[in-house]
Amino acid sequence: MSDGTVVDGGAPTPIDAARVRELVRALSERNAQLEHALESRIVIEQAKGILSERYGMPIDRAFEVLRRAARNHRVRIHALAAEVVERRETPPPIEEALR
């Protein structure tokens, strides 16, 4: 066939190999993006749980506080959530958002 497809079990043509390489590259990139998003989400969920427990507030309120503090201090929510998870004391932006 003229479009580069494999016919009757023959070896892949250079066009097929290029398509496969591009597909593998695109899928690998997408997989890395999804892994990063999942890891980020896990940290945010952990921070929400910590804040909820620490301050006796519902989970959705803990997320609002986290989001507001990140926005007000122009930091990424993931970075602030990581601080909450890693430190025993509440980061100042969170304390400020609770006032």
Structure, explained:
With 99 residues, this protein is mainly α. The protein has one domain (14-98): Arc Repressor Mutant, subunit A (Orthogonal Bundle), CATH 1.10.10. The protein is 74% helix and 0% strand. The radius of gyration is 23 Å and the shape is rod-shaped. The model has no long low-confidence stretch (mean pLDDT 88).
Question: Which properties best describe this structure?
Answer:
99 residues; mainly alpha; Arc Repressor Mutant, subunit A; 74% helix; rod-shaped
Kindly summarize this structure in a few lines:
The protein has 99 residues and is an all-alpha fold.
- Structural class category: mainly alpha
Mean pLDDT: 88
Series of secondary-structure elements, N-terminal to C-terminal: HHHH
Shape estimate = rod-shaped
Helix percent reads: over 70%
Low-confidence parts: none
Instruction: Specify the CATH class.
Output: Mainly Alpha
> Whole-number radius of gyration?
23 Å
Amount of beta strand: under 5%
CATH topology: Arc Repressor Mutant, subunit A
How are the elements arranged and paired?
Layout: H1 14-55, H2 59-72, H3 77-86, H4 92-98
